[in-house]
Amino acid sequence: DAKTTQPPSMDCAEGRAANLPCNHSTISGNEYVYWYRQIHSQGPQYIIHGLKNNETNEMASLIITEDRKSSTLILPHATLRDTAVYYCIVRGNNAGNMLTFGGGTRLMVKP
Amino acid sequence: NAGVMQNPRHLVRRRGQEARLRCSPMKGHSHVYWYRQLPEEGLKFMVYLQKENIIDESGMPKERFSAEFPKEGPSILRIQQVVRGDSAAYFCASSRDSINSPLHFGNGTRLTVT
User: Fold this and answer.
1) Are A35 and A47 in contact (CB under 8 A)?
2) N or C: which terminus of chain A has fewer CB atoms within 10 Å of its end residue's CB?
3) What pLDDT, on a 0 to 100 scale, did the predictor assign at position A96?
4) Residues 76 to 95 of B: which have CB under 8 A from any A CB?
5) What gap in Å lies between CA B54 and CA B82, rounded to an integer?
6) Cβ-count burial of B46 within 10 angstroms (0-12 exposed, 13-18 middle, 19+ buried)?
7) Which of chain A's residues have a Cβ under 8 Å away from the Cβ of B89?
8) Do the beta carbons of residue A64 and residue A50 sit within 8 Å?
9) From the CB of residue A15, how many other CB atoms can be counted at a distance below 10 Å?
10) Which of A34, A49, A95 has its CB closest to that of B55?
């Protein structure tokens, strides 16, 4: 699976949009970009995923560049409860289809 | 529409005892994954199972650890003769049969070996 690069930490003011970047320059054509987050010691929570097109759901928006080498997760109105570690994962069509977690971005939402 | 259920939430074992961790996948999900998270570390893949089959166990230690997902009942991760280094949070995830289907995680079992 392609490797991803994320900043280790970011701050965001409560109520503002949080834009979390991710680089995945070696992504293959059939690999999906997935985003998860882990709040404190809970289980990872699925946020959103996409292949080529931008995606939006009730939690977030995912913007994937045209060349698919990078993406941005957007939390439109961050709240204190969005403080978490956010993982960008490229999921390949390997035998297991498993997710490989990297270090992620620790997002701190501040009042 | 229950999510992935793991039990127990907390498990304390003395060194040398056995630990059994259970995972009930979401309804309609036939794929189960186990991950381990050591204190202050990231999530590491252990094993991937489908009903009655182990598909990929490349992340699981060769000794003392085993996993199963029987035709009926939950998936079980078994750790024999536990050691202090096994203390960790163990997360189970399930999904449908597709790379386009997200994995959904349970809230984990926190194993403490004393």
Assistant:
1) yes
2) C
3) 64
4) 89, 91, 93, 95
5) 22
6) buried
7) 41
8) yes
9) 11
10) A95
Chain B residue closest to A35 (CA)? B102
Q: In the structure encoding, which two tokens stand for residue A90, read together?
A: 């490229």
Residues B29 and B48 sit within 8 Å (Cβ to Cβ): no
Per residue in B50-69, pLDDT tens?
A: 988 999 999 999 999 999 99
pLDDT tens sequence across B67-106: 999 999 999 999 999 999 999 999 999 998 777 789 999 9
* Residue A80, helix vs strand vs coil: helix
Cα A85 to chain center, whole Å? 10
User: Distance (Å) from the C-alpha of residue B38 to the closest C-alpha of chain A?
Assistant: 11
> Identity (one letter) of the amino acid at A57?
N
Q: Which tokens belong to A80?
A: 């204190």
